[in-house]
Structures are given as structure tokens and as C-alpha cells.
Amino acid sequence: MQERIINDLAESRINWKLALLFIPVAFLTYLFHEFGHWIVGEILGNDMIISLNHVEPKSGFFIDESHALYSAMGGPAFTILQAMIFLLIIEKTKSLYVYPAVFFAAFVRFFSIIFGGFNMQDEAKISAMLNMGTYTIAIIVILLLFLLILRSSYVLKISLKANLYFFAISTMCILLVIETDKLLY
Predict the structure, then answer these.
(1) Residue 35: CB partners within 8 Å, gap ≥ 6?
(2) Where does the pLDDT of residue 90 fall: very low under 50, low under 70, confident under 90, or very high at 90 and above?
(3) Structural domain count, the chain
């Protein structure tokens, strides 16, 4: 079994440097997502506080009710922006070492939506504030991010098997981020 995994990883071009790269990518992806919430809130005039996995107005409420919606949109928008920027870099460089930034952006939203308590996630809140179907925004965000993974995988010739290994690596990294967040706050 161990030999098979070693062969699979070699065939998939996954080495220790690439696997370990997912750790800082995981932390930076979380921070960039939260920065999206924070920057929108700040631009709208709210005094915001930010942590590894949470942003809110210092006062506990937004200056205007609509600011909650815009700030909620900031996180997923920045996550999509991250994936798009790194896809463009992949298109130009064909570097496998850029792929974790695209893959983890999609993975973190998928993981959060599926396992993080759906009603607590940005996409569910946005759908509720816009009076849309409960899953509408979540489906749009996940579909967009999945398409960016598909394009990146195509450009880099990454197989489904390799993506399953990236899924396993990302799972370990997201758990590391979640536990670090618990320790810090």
C-alpha cells in the first residue's frame, strides 16, 4: 500500500515541497477571505476587527443594515479573486507550485459550506439577505471555484487521482487552520 501511494504521488508530481506549500497557502487563503470582509466593512465606514476566521464591526453592529450584506459578499468575492489571479499565473507560468492557491480557495469554501454549519456560512447569509433560494449563492460560488480548478487542472495536466491527494492534503491543512484559530481566540 505504501509503495502504491509513493508511486501515485510521483506520477502525480506531488513532492514534499508541494505538499508543504499547502500549509502557508491555507493560512493565507483564510486571511485573504477575511480581509475581503474587513476591507468592504472598512470602506463602508465601519470600524472592523479581524481574526484568522472571523470579522465583525468593533461595535457589534454595522452602521447600515446593507453593510452586513456587502461585507458578507467581500469574503467569497476575495476567495474567487484569489483563485482567478492564480489561474492567470498558472496560464502564464504552467507552474504546479501555483496550483495550491487555486485548489485551496475552492476547497475552503466547499469544506466550510459542507462541514461548517451551512447556515453560518457567508453564502447562506448572502442568500438570506437577498431573499434568494437558500443554496443559490453557495452553488454559484462553488461552481465558479470548481470551474477554476478544472481549468487549472487542464492547463497543468493534473489528474483526478492527483486532485484526490490534494483533497487529502487540504483536509489536513484546513484542520490545522481551524485548530490554530481555536488556540488563538
Answers:
(1) 50, 78
(2) very high
(3) 1
